[in-house]
Amino acid sequence: MSETYVVLGAGAAGLAAVRAIRRRDEAGRIIVVTAECCPAYSPALLPYLLAGTVEEKGLALADQRFYDAHQAVLVSGTRVVGVDFERLAVLVEQGGAIKYTTLLIATGAAARGEEVPGATGADGPLTLRTLADARILQGRLEEAESVAVLGAGLAGLEIAMAVRKLGKQVTVLARSDQILCRNAEVGEATIVQGWLEEAGIRFLLGRGASAFEDAGRRRFLTTTRGDAVPADLCVAAKGAAPNTAWAAPVGVRADRGLAVDAGMRTGIPNVFAAGDAALTRHAVTGQVEAFATWPSACAQGAVAGANMAGADARLSGEIPFNVLPVFERRVAFMGCTSSEALRSLGEGVEQRVIGCPALGRGRTLWFHDGRVVGAVVIGSRQDAGRLRQAIQSGVGSAHRCGGVQWPLRRTSLRR
Ligand SMILES: Cc1cc2nc3c(=O)[nH]c(=O)nc-3n(C[C@H](O)[C@H](O)[C@H](O)COP(=O)(O)OP(=O)(O)OC[C@H]3O[C@@H](n4cnc5c(N)ncnc54)[C@H](O)[C@@H]3O)c2cc1C
């Protein structure tokens, strides 16, 4: 009997899986189910859509030609609400079921919202996770002169930059005392914050939003420290929650994502998970978490798809990799680069600085037990790939790393 592969989600992970399945199985049926009605798109490009530097058609990942070429059937506008793992059937909102022999859960994640007293649904805080969110935000931005962004992580900063490019007054609020807590130590975070401030973005750190108030034609947001921030519109960028609540029986951690092994298997027979919906292992710290980046989703989807079609592929541990373009500049984070991740390695972490990151060109590297474990590359496109490879393969001493002999300046580690 030929297989019926059902792929839930038409994002990076789901589509990578379709390619991998079809590479190994020419005969099986492939059914891709997605809640959205639009063609598959990249959420990572939504800030560029907001800024007007990319058009909607530039977001597209796959159209009908992709499904035809892979002999796959797309079932769009269909929300999954459960899976009957005994009957091997996916349950959909409209009623009815889709039978599978092998299932991939690649339903991504949804934005975590934030409630602010005084805000009605239309004021927000709005979020930016889907194309539908972006269209709503675009409409509201036409009227707004000032925007408050709640959250100073990568997504919050991308949104702040997009809105600033439109000429709006932008204030970023965060409860933490530094920006980019999950990606950077305070030194690198301060450099990036300086670049953003030069471009006119204001930061209020160490405080949250406590209320929205009308003041004539304009609106203000009051912070927990009593500041009044002009905010005709408020956008929350407080991280994401996996779209897996409906799949609770798959894993005890369904609220955080679905735990999988290195082959992307959930532990339920013939059920795999990949992308933002899955929890995988950090190559350096060993921690199990959702990596929620585009490269991770593609790699995980490819491993899942191959194994759904009978291969025995394994995902090597994850190396977080994020690139943040900051107007004309750029910063890349890879491996362990946040205080929390570096602390989790215990004693003996050394930091080395090459060049002059504070002046916009340099690298900060971290070493532990004789290997490079993290790097922040500021202002250059060079070496990022080689450094990432060095972190992944666990090589790279304090003097030679990523195939390059570098004159390293040792500094004390800020912790
Ligand atoms: C604003 C923003 C900026 C980003 N910037 C970057 C960046 O610069 N670099 C980077 O690496 N990553 C970035 N990311 C993250 C990156 O986009 C994601 O990690 C990646 O898209 C995850 O792919 P995925 O396939 O797991 O999920 P998604 O691409 O989210 O796809 C999920 C799919 O599942 C479907 N779905 C969801 N729920 C259901 C359901 N119940 N039933 C049926 N279908 C369902 C959706 O319709 C969709 O087709 C960004 C994300 C956002 C939102």
Question: What would you note in describing this structure?
Answer:
With 415 residues, the protein is an alpha/beta fold. It has 3 domains: 4-110 and 240-308, FAD/NAD(P)-binding domain; 113-236, FAD/NAD(P)-binding domain (3-Layer(bba) Sandwich); 328-411, Enolase-like, domain 1. The chain contains 9 helices and 30 strands. It has helices spanning 12-24, 46-51, 64-69, 131-143, 154-165, 186-198, 294-308, 339-343, 384-393, and strands at 4-8, 29-33, 40-41, 60-62, 72-75, 80-84, 89-92, 97-99, 102-105, 109-111, 146-150, 169-174, 202-205, 209-215, 218-223, 228-230, 233-236, 240-242, 258-259, 271-273, 278-281, 288-289, 321-326, 329-335, 350-356, 361-368, 371-378, 400-401, 404-405, 409-411. The chain has a 6-stranded antiparallel beta sheet with strand order 23-24-27-26-25-30, sandwiched between helices. β7 and β8 (97-99) form a beta hairpin. α1 packs parallel to α7. The longest helix is centred in the C-terminal third of the chain and has 15 residues, at 294-308. It is globular, with a radius of gyration of 22 Å. The termini are far apart. The protein binds flavin-adenine dinucleotide. Flavin-adenine dinucleotide binds next to α1, α2, α5 and α7. Flavin-adenine dinucleotide binds at residues 8-14, 33-36, 43-44, 46-47, 79-80, 106-108, 128-129, 155, 158, 243, 275-277, 292-295, 297, 322.
